[in-house]
Amino acid sequence: MARTEQEERNLKLVMAMFDHVLKPMDADAVDRYLAPDYIQHNQWVDTGTEPLKAFLRQMRGENPDAVHDIKRCFVEDDHVIVHYHVRRRPGDPGFAVIDIFRVENGLIAEHWDVVQDVPADSPNPNSPF
């Protein structure tokens, strides 16, 4: 199924935000990608861009070598879904993360996520990725 031009723009926006905000944990780049009235549903971070910036600064200070390895992306209408693997440091099994973003007027307006620890040993031979 082909993506619409708007879906392509939404996907490019979210991928650019990953490249310039989440992967480098660059709080100073947040305003280029997120709406001023950004709605956050993550239960570890308050809503709005300023709490997100504070969270990114804290995470960058605690985990300067973190890796965000994107595995797959989906887009439908104004929503973009990204499935990825976060590792805080070398040797860390990390987290399996699914982020859901809603795009409005060319900026990310809303975010939900689901985070799951990746166990070092699992009875299930299938990777979460």
Automatic annotation (TrEMBL):
It holds the Pfam family SnoaL_2. Coiled coil: none annotated. Residues 16-111 form the SnoaL-like domain. GO terms for biological process: polyketide metabolic process. InterPro entries: Cyclase_SnoaL-like, NTF2-like_dom_sf, SnoaL-like. This is SnoaL-like domain-containing protein.
